[in-house]
Amino acid sequence: MDKLLQEELAAKRERFIRMKTRMAHLPFHKTLDQFDFGFQPSIDERRIRDLATLLFIEHQENLIFLGPLGVGKTHLAVALALEAIKQRYTVYFITSHDMIQTTQQQAHQNHTIKQKMKIFTKPNLLIIDEIGYRKMEDTAAHFFFPIISERYETGSIILTSNKSYGSWGEIFGDSVLATAILDRLLHHSTTNNINGESYRIKEKKKAGFFRPEPQVKNRHKPVNSIAAPSPRGTPSLALTEEFSTVYFEEFSIGLDK
Ligand code: ADP
Ligand code: MG
User: Fold this and answer.
1) Ligand 2 centre and the CA of 154: distance in Å?
2) Do 134 and 174 reside in the same domain of the chain?
3) Ligand 1: which atom is nearest the Cα of residue 254?
């Protein structure tokens, strides 16, 4: 009888977690155990494991992951989100672009400010992914600020960006509001800088998309090679055509200039 009850409770808990995970809108399902800390030495595994105790949510603090494309920012955010869901916290994941678009659209309808922001202000943990990857409209900060402000000291945010804080004025097109946003965001927060190589590039290299640069003098350079950013720590490598497509798709929008 006891065993039956336990099984029933376990099944119920699993259903609950599955439902909450669906509601969180995570872009993929990856855990901390799937993260290769050895590949990214700029990340302190102990610190991340410590974050997974979720005290930062308990204390309504924010976490910020900064770094170039492909270094695992979203993976870590998702992994912490999955831990949070297991601990019965509510989570909502959205890219900054979609968040601003949603808020802008709703502003045109007849919702009150509170109603339209509920989806972003209610969850215990809001993940705002990819700040600075795309150019925002001039008015973006006006839609962003109230959400950050409303969550200030009432709920946690995990935020990822490929831009250093110094460029945020540029991202939002309004340095005064950007400062106000940063002020609230950073007051109770931990910033994790990731200075590594893209994991995707590592995988592509392994799959043979890269070949060593031929040592030819005065070789005519392909147009692309002038613009090709060299990820930190990457040895000089020529890009094969197939890889070059992947590379430029990702990096042309991902540079902190
Ligand atoms: P970012 O958000 O920094 O651009 P992602 O978190 O999306 O990067 O990572 C890109 C891909 O590489 C994802 O599939 C992610 O799971 C994987 N990845 C990144 N870093 C690692 C790592 N250290 N160990 C395992 N997988 C990783
Ligand atoms: Mg990402």
Assistant:
1) 25
2) yes
3) 4
